[in-house]
Amino acid sequence: MAGKASGDNRELVNEQAIANMYAAMRSEMNQLYSKITELEMEISEHSLVIGAIQPLDPSRRCYRMVGGVLVERTIKEVLPAVQRNKAGLEEVIARLNEALEKKKKEIAEFELKHKIKIKRADTEAKEDSNLKEGSSQGVLVGPANE
Questions:
Q1: GO MF annotations for this entry (predicted)?
Q2: Domain residues of the chain, as ranges?
Q3: How many CB atoms lie within 10 A of CB 82?
Q4: What is the value of pTM for the model shown?
Q5: HEC states along 50-118?
Q6: Minimal CA–CA distance to 64: which of 43, 85, 44?
Q7: Hey, which of 67, 77, 98, 134 would disulfide with 73, CB 3.0 to 4.6 Å?
């Protein structure tokens, strides 16, 4: 009887370890998503700046933030640097997308290996709507005036 209890305990510990590993993998994937989104916003800002200063006279004064200090330059000096930064951000996003795809495959393999099934929110919503189909949810009724 004691052997049976210790076997169940190991199984629970093993399941908990698998769940922890899975949660960590999902967390890493979410971090990749958020970093990609953040960098895409920066690219958008760079595009706005490029679009605003490109048609202007290259000898015109321009200010650029360098390490927290506002520095006076010319558009001719700033435009190529902003374009290089944008290209660098695009390369980083491409690498992060590759890492994201690898992580997705790794998670899918992990799910298959450990027979993990995730109940999606849309499935839950459908089940809830089927259960509460006849209810008067979302309707506010005042007191009866008799």
A1: unfolded protein binding
A2: 9-115
A3: 19
A4: 0.70
A5: HHHHCCCCCCCEEEEEECCEEEEEEHHHHHHHHHHHHHHHHHHHHHHHHHHHHHHHHHHHHHHHCCCCC
A6: 85
A7: 77
pLDDT higher at 141 or 57: 57
> Rounded to 5 degrees, what angle do the CA atoms 56, 59, 61 make?
80
Whether 102 contacts 110, CB under 8 Å: no
pLDDT digits (tens, 9 = 90+) for 89-137: 999 999 999 999 999 999 999 989 888 888 776 655 555 555 555 444 4
CATH number for 9-115: choose from 3.40.50.800, 1.20.1730.10, 1.10.287.370, 3.40.50.1010.
1.10.287.370
